[in-house]
Prior knowledge:
The protein is mainly alpha-helical. It contains 5 helices and no strands. The relative contact order is 0.11. The mean pLDDT is 80.
Amino acid sequence: MLSRPVYESLPYLYFAAGYGLITFEPSFFASISGGLFFIVGSLVWNIRSHFRRSDNEYTRHNIDRHKILYNLKPFACFLFGILIITWIDNKIAAVFAFILCIFAGWILFMRINNRYTKKKKKRLRNNKKYYHS
């Protein structure tokens, strides 16, 4: 069994390994390996995020049909941004890749914000009713 700090850091270690393989050794096989590390890290992150959600089932969107694509979208955007920066030597492509990475970070921020703050806000509102009555 892994210790808790190692277990919690595994998806980020996968991301770092994938990023390192793609950027520090720009070859075809290193990019494929780095992409696979990145995809595995995103799958582990999504599985943990799904089971740790604090919002209720009713407020979630009905995304069952394309759930895997929906969950992997920010990670795929970030991965493509890294690949574009690494493989294409063009300033316009670099700007596009940077925008793609910013977009991926924004999606992740919004998902984390929506998944983990809904119940806390509701719980705080309910507690205020009891204290002010």
